[in-house]
Design brief:
Layout: E1 32-35, H1 37-41, H2 51-64, E2 68-72, H3 78-89, E3 98-104, H4 107-116, E4 122-130, H5 133-140, H6 144-161, H7 163-167, E5 171-179, H8 186-200, E6 208-214, H9 221-234, E7 241-247, H10 254-263, E8 268-271, H11 285-293, H12 306-317, H13 338-347, H14 373-380, H15 385-396, H16 405-419, H17 425-437, E9 443-453, E10 456-465, E11 468-476, H18 479-488, E12 496-506, E13 513-522, E14 527-534, H19 537-553
Parallel strand pairs: 1-2, 1-8, 2-3, 3-4, 4-5, 5-6, 6-7, 7-8
Antiparallel strand pairs: 9-10, 10-11, 12-13, 13-14
Length: 554
Amino acid sequence: MSFSPVGKYTPFPPVRLPDRQWPDRTHARAPIWCSVDLRDGNQALAQPMSVEEKIEYFALLVSIGFKQIEVGFPSASQIEFDFCRRLIEENRIPDDVSIQILCQCREDLIVRSLEALRGAKNIIFHLYNSTSPKQREYVFNATRDEIKAIAVHGITLLKKHMGPLVTAGSRIRLEYSPESFTSTELDFALEVCEAVTDVWQPSPDNKIILNLPATVEYATPNVHADQIEWMCRHLTRRALTEVSLHTHNDRGTGVAATELGLLAGADRVEGTLFGNGERTGNLDIVIVALNLHSHGIETGLDFSNLPHLREVYERCTRMEVPARQPYAGDLVFTAFSGSHQDAIKKSWPHQKPGHPWDVVYIPIDPADLGRTYKAIIRINSQSGKGGVAYILETEFGYQLPKLMHKEIGKVINDLADQRGTELAPDEILAAFQREYLERTEPVTLRQFRTTERGAQVTCEAELVVRGEPFFMTGQGNGPIDAFVRGLAATDRVPGFDVQSYNEHSLGSGAEAKAVSYIQIKLAGGRTCFGAGVDTNIELASIRAIVSALNRALT
């Protein structure tokens, strides 16, 4: 008989806590929020954010209302170090905002991190080391005492080297994480945290932050809550400690684990916008905050223009918010069922100013998030950007990239407004073709060919720009790169960079064509998508660039 795969796994051990208190508690206030988008979120990206993108993202986090922002791992790379320095030297950090950095318990890394933080007013220095049995056995080959010594030594080194910053006026708080806390024996996690606290000597004015991360989510949320309540009960200096949560989403219950962890006594929450992070992601702070908001609890975070926050997030991270992501997804307020639509429409008029929100099927007022009832219904009726993209894909096979939806949505909405009627699928297709595939002004592509020599591609192109024909050549690491470089060497069109590239086949068999979607960014910062179709994928991508240029230049 074959071995069942389920036999490889064992249940996660429960916490013995028969008099647990958290099940009978309710949320009464918001926690302290700390965004880790720029460190934990950024390190999980296939293409990490540039310094300029991180600066824009930092400003976004400040505008939302975050007072604690982890800005990076400055001892890990020059880019991280330079970003930290720019924030400080360019006075981008408000006086009421603390920047947090992450650092391992090594002297050279601690010294380098303190160099990056010179001049900062409010600092959270986040030290960590792994403590779980498997980390001790497989990674460090170390005993419990040796692991505890690493943590204590790190805190000692920080106190030794941070004097000049404190003398210069910096306020430094310590955050310590027994990494992989939730898979560490509770008695040992407590022992390490107590030893660290002994060295740091917190005070009422400078509490220690003990971050208890679910580095990997192994257990159900109730077990996580038991672990947090056990720690809160046993910390000898609980009044001088901020207990912090940092959940991941491996089991899909990061939000639930955080909410129960707060009931269990935690004071602080680390997470990212829309849950970006390693593997299945970090905690989605947007969800937890808006869950509290929907229960009438003031969160201190401003999500009143959630579509704008999402746009910046998607552009800077090159990640997409799924259509069904709570609160932020395109379809979260959309009902495709006729009976649901009818109930929403009938209950909406009964809402009165000053009365509790109570619309059927809509648990939170979309207006609180910068969304409107009319826009939601229009998306459902295939006139919004989500509906337009859905029709183009399901009816005609065009799989538009997410960031392109907004552009085509505006084109279709403008057309629908002009005609005053709902558009049929064929009318949507015709408008898409006119806007992206049939433009020939001011740039027309007549011929394009490439030759390869090793890793180098040379292209030759015949074009007409504003009625004047010309011939160009270019070299690069591929057809797109060669074409862009060749155009840049002329003065016929403005300079631009390629921001994103997507392609797929249209149809199947001998009649199949290739479709390319390319987003370009002009020198002034404006971005524009183009689309190209051809039996040759190389030509389709070049046509997409020309399409984007024509749209940008008109």
